[in-house]
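Predict the assembly for these two chains.
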Amino acid sequence: KQEVTQIPAALSVPEGENLVLNCSFTDSAIYNLQWFRQDPGKGLTSLLLIQSSQREQTSGRLNASLDKSSGRSTLYIAASQPGDSATYLCAVKPPSGTYKYIFGTGTRLKVLA
Amino acid sequence: ETGVTQTPRHLVMGMTNKKSLKCEQHLGHNAMYWYKQSAKKPLELMFVYSLEERVENNSVPSRFSPECPNSSHLFLHLHTLQPEDSALYLCASSRQGPDEKLFFGSGTQLSVL
């Protein structure tokens, strides 16, 4: 059974710092992995999607990597800003044939001005 | 504007009430989802519709009843709920294919008294 873990649960950093958020999954057989951002009381916004055949994806200050063999993905945020404060979730989709994404519980990030 | 609209944003109901949550997507997607988000728990997939046909139903109590009249609209009918059903209910949509990003609405914050 696929399980997704995100550690730490919460993180505070000063503005301008580069940071890495971690996502671990137990079954390396995945179809894709998505990173999402969620602001308090709101829905999720998709940030990056990595296909199982890819190693990384980049969008602006964000870079997500995928290492299936070790069951890990990281989200790198460069030059963090207070507006980056939110909860970041990763979700893994099992191989084709299911619609079910398995979500982690998220990392709550606070960037201090 | 995420392209997925949910109403109402907030709902307070008694255990004997009947209410419905509404979701509409303007993205031309062919799959729609209901998720439940409770504090400190991963998102739980409740129902999935693909091309207006229910394809997943994850052991959800019968007091939750989904309806998908067409590919753009999704409802969640609520009846005789329990206080533990209080949560953020999120609707999402996607297009089947290699880039299967999930797009979420802002959610309905439900409180059952």
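Chain B touches chain A at residues 2, 4, 6, 31, 33, 40-43, 45, 48, 50, 55-56, 58, 88, 90, 92, 98-107, 109 (CB under 8 Å). The mean pLDDT of chain B is 91.
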